[in-house]
């Protein structure tokens, strides 16, 4: 196994400086998702992996995108078929999506090949409900869903609950531009822009789910995917390298 490299990355915001300790994790992934203390990812060959202790364990199956959270472990394959992991097996779920997110408290959400937005009404046992708007990427947390469209515009859907996965049915535009966005189980919001820069939404809370401003992480390296859970910020580089950062 490769020797873990430890890096210190300085994060500056106004007059505040925060230090992140980052380690390069052996392996190669094109996409990663973390939630409920679990880590899942897929590589360039659509092979699926989960982190067990300090080792990557391959999970049977083939997916281009995987997501883990309170709604379970979900994924979509290269043909946009949808699957949910149950008792060690991937169970096919009706519908077609290019990206799925399991971060909601009950209901997974996703976007179709034509950027239409969906959530699974009533959780895994019911049917997909189309939500207004068009997005290329969507992610949900405990009280809101966030998404980005093909132009990089950022939106939030408030008032999302276990019984109302469509929330307020009104996407509110947020300043900035991102190519992907992720909401953690505790509601934190992170994103990556087209330049490979990492951002966190500051001031997010249940009373103010939209937050106040974007904070830029001053990494020298460029990334394409981000996910956060339990104090760990996971990053996927443009070269499919994996990094795990903690405060």
Search tags:
five-stranded antiparallel β-sheet, mainly beta, four-stranded antiparallel β-sheet, 25 strands, 247 residues
Structural overview:
It is built from no helices and 25 strands. It is mostly beta strands and 247 residues long. The strands form six sheets. The protein has a five-stranded antiparallel sheet, with no helix packed on it. A four-stranded antiparallel sheet has the order 3-4-5-6, with no helix packed on it. The protein has a four-stranded antiparallel sheet with strand order 7-8-9-10, with no helix packed on it. The two termini are 25 Å apart. The N terminus is likely disordered.
- Total count of helical runs of at least 4 residues: 0
- Helical amount among residues, as a percent range? under 10%
Average pLDDT taken over every residue = 90
Structural class from helices and strands?
A: mainly beta
The rounded Rg comes to 17 Å
Order of helices and strands: EEEEEEEEEEEEEEEEEEEEEEEEE
Side by side, the strands of the main sheet go 1-2-25-24-23
Basic shape? globular
Would you report the number of β strands?
25
Largest sheet: 5 strands, antiparallel
Q: Into which percentage range does the β-strand content fall?
A: over 45%
Low-confidence stretches: 1-17
N-end to C-end Cα span: 25 Å
């Amino acid at each position: 196994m490769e020797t873990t490299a430890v890096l210190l990355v300085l994060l500056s915001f106004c007059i505040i400086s925060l230090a992140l300790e980052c380690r390069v994790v052996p392996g190669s992934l094109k996409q990663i998702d973390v939630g409920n203390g679990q880590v899942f990812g897929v590589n360039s060959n659509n092979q699926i992996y989960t982190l067990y202790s300090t080792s990557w364990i391959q999970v049977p199956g083939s997916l281009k995108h995987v997501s883990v959270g309170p709604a379970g472990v979900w994924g979509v394959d290269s043909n946009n078929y949808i699957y949910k992991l149950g008792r060690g097996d991937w169970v096919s779920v009706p519908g077609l999506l290019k990206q799925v997110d399991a971060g909601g408290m009950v209901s997974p959400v996703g976007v179709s090949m034509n950027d239409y937005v969906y959530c699974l009404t009533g959780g895994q046992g019911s049917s997909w409900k189309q939500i207004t708007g068009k997005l290329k990427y969507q992610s949900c947390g405990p009280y809101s869903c966030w998404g980005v469209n093909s132009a990089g515009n950022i939106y939030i859907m408030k008032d999302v609950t276990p019984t109302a996965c469509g929330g307020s049915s009104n996407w509110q535009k947020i300043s900035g531009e991102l190519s992907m966005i992720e909401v953690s189980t505790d509601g934190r919001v992170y994103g990556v822009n087209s330049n490979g820069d990492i951002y966190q939404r500051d001031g997010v809370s249940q009373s103010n789910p939209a937050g106040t401003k974007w904070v830029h992480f001053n990494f020298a390296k460029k990334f394409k995917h981000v996910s956060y859970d339990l104090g760990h910020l996971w990053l996927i580089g443009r070269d499919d390298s994996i990094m795990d950062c903690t405060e």
